[in-house]
Amino acid sequence: MESNFLVVFPFPLMLLTIITIFFSLTSSQPIDSKSDQDALLAFKRSIKNGALSNNWLTNTSICDWTGVSCGSKHGRVTSLNLTGFGLEGNLTPHLGNLTFLQSLDVSSNSLTGVLPAELSKLQRLQEINAASNNLSGEIPRSIFTNMSVLVEIDVSNNKLSGGLPGDMCSNTPKLRRLILRENQIYGNIPMSIDKCREMEELSLSTNRFNGNIPIGIGNLSMLTLLSMYENHLQGNIPSSIFNISSLESMYLFSNRLSGNIPSKLNNLPNLRELYLYENNLEGTFNNFEPSTLSIF
């Protein structure tokens, strides 16, 4: 004969159990959002002139803070756009804790210090724009080698130095815009740059690059802008570059380039500007239409 047992839990114990289960299922979102808030507040503290003091207040949601955008589903910070805010201070490493961040734009400010290596922890980050600041030091190697979805890097018009890693495009296959002009970056242009097959704009001008232009640049079939003027580049211009049919602008002036240039530009139907002056190049161009192409 079987017996049926009915177990009765006291109501207070049952209520406590339900509350515990509820918070265990829902607490992850506030904790994650809190980590975003902590990262942004750390950045706010690193800004010396108080430019964010009246905008980023803890009694309001971080998604309502000026320059901050959040995802509609998870409420996490996905974009930080602080261009032209007059910020003075440093880029805190705590920005590397904004794990859902896709776009970082702190351009046109007065930021100093280095570009934090912790940014390379952000595996969703697609755009880094820190142009027109006073940043110094090297660009962290990990930014070029550990960010597989990165599309744009613009750190032009700073005081950055050091060289570029030899394997810089090995794990950034989606990189389309690499804008490093007006810095103090030196050394050779890495041969691995041809692994950035989706590159559309490559601007390395007004730096201290030396050595030859990598032949592999001619394999960047989507390239529209090639800008390397005012460096110390030498040797020939790879002939393969004159076969990039998508190319619209090429600026290689004020280097130490030598050798012959092709007399015809038949394979560059979209080319509008070609600046090669102040080099040691020989040859002349034929069969081009002056109204559509500027050559200097």
Automatic annotation (TrEMBL):
Predominant cellular place of this UniProt entry's protein: membrane
Q: Which family does it belong to?
A: Belongs to the RLP family.
The Leucine-rich repeat-containing N-terminal plant-type domain covers: 34-70
Q: Which residues cross the membrane?
A: 6-25
Q: Tell me the membrane topology, using the record's own terms.
A: Single-pass type I membrane protein
Protein name in UniProt: Leucine-rich repeat-containing N-terminal plant-type domain-containing protein
Q: Which UniProt keywords apply?
A: Glycoprotein, Leucine-rich repeat, Membrane, Repeat, Signal, Transmembrane, Transmembrane helix
Q: Which SMART domains match?
A: LRR_TYP (SM00369)
Which Gene Ontology cellular-component terms appear in the entry?
A: membrane
Per UniProt, subcellular location reads as: Membrane
Q: Name one GO biological process term.
A: response to other organism
Name the InterPro entries for this protein: DNA_repair-toleration, Leu-rich_rpt, Leu-rich_rpt_typical-subtyp, LRR_dom_sf, LRR_N_plant-typ
